[in-house]
């Protein structure tokens, strides 16, 4: 366990744990935030050495106090009062260090005396200006795909971009809408000394009144720049094309709380371990101690359960359908009414994932009505999927539909469906040969999706061409992962083992039924004899 401490002198205050420390200096009777250090290396600071922003106002701290001083946690509070267009605004920043978190937690509060309108507010952070524009920048926000820049080139697939404020060439990573997963992992390097910087930010969404996340490069100064990190900050760059003017009511307290960790080495040694560690820590912060989650509480109040939902879906799929959701003749809606401008459109091709799941339950339960429904739908779905365009969006209808249908074939062989899959994947191979690496806008997760589809189809059909395509996809995933931060999405051996296990599933489930007396009741509920 790390040792935490607070050290003070006449003109300096330091709070730290282990080799990490945050320094604050007294200049002209004003306390100013200094650098956050790892050993002798500067890693992070409050932007421009300012506590926070209130629009154009940069508050100054005249007082401080130690609010906690225990063996496992220490905290220091700085505060002051500034005027925003004549309106007094009380503010405070608390910097805390705790032994269980390798970093600091910063809590910012503002209380305006009257209602004020702000376009910028709260505390932001930035790295040192030690990058010349040729560095690598890798960032993961929330549960979004990784954004990876090498110099001025975007290596990862192009993310969604805001419509107005985006500046061409900027190495920006941001969440366009308030994120429900307040995690930001940023890796930048090498700097002028050849080192790398790894920064992890966790937003305390139970405290923050703003829930946007953004990482942007700072302006070049003498040929060098850094990176600014905004989490829980009101800022026009997080507004996705609109001015984010917000009214803060007088007399109300508004808060931002962020946990910050930094290291010259990648936490955990790999991206997967780093991201998982950040996600796990975030859960420890925010998951209710009594495990009482609002959605679960609502479901229990309505006496809803997964078994009830499954039973209703089976009844719906085997029946005449539900208006606005499912029709045996027209298919299922891609988006329900009110969720999208193009909502309400039915599609038989979109039934493919449902057919895969329905076929699996039909096989496991041996229900005649489910099997009859599968037989009735499989021809329509196969005809809808059997169309000339091989690619759309990131993964494309080919693979969104093909992988569930391949799994359906492992339960119920069907010549018509088999032929549709062979033709669809043949068109994909012809349009985008895996060896050429020309599939547009595909991240490594989608590439792994392709690999599994190729490998499973190749094994079921005994097609060496498909097997080779799957292997090429795996090789590209692992090769790119080594250059981009040790991404190991999956290995060829793991995929083949997974496929072999799945292809044996019909025999395994038969043994499970006999050995464990497991079965699904006709109403969709799981039970034991």
Concise summary:
31% of the residues lie in helices and 28% in strands. The protein is of the alpha+beta class.
Largest sheet, strands/sense/barrel? 10 strands, antiparallel
Summarize the amount of helix as a percent range.
Answer: 25-40%
Domain unit count: 2
In angstroms, what separates the terminal alpha carbons?
Answer: 50 Å
From the 3D structure, determine the CATH topology of the largest domain: Beta-galactosidase, Chain A, domain 5
The total of beta strands comes to 28
Dominant shape? elongated
Overall pLDDT: 79
**Poorly predicted tracts of residues:** 161-169, 390-397, 481-529
Structural class: alpha+beta
- Which class of the largest domain in CATH terms? Mainly Beta
Output the strand order for the largest sheet.
7-8-9-10-23-19-18-14-15-16
> Helical region count?
11
Strand content: 25-35%
CATH architecture of the largest domain: Distorted Sandwich
Radius of gyration: 28 Å
Describe this structure as you would to a colleague:
The chain has eleven helices and 28 strands. A hairpin with a 3-residue loop joins strand 24 (326-327) and strand 25. The strands form six sheets. A ten-stranded antiparallel beta sheet has the order 7-8-9-10-23-19-18-14-15-16, covered by helices on one side. A nine-stranded antiparallel beta sheet has the order 1-2-3-4-5-13-21-20-17, with no helix packed on it. With 529 residues, it is α+β, with helices and mostly antiparallel strands.
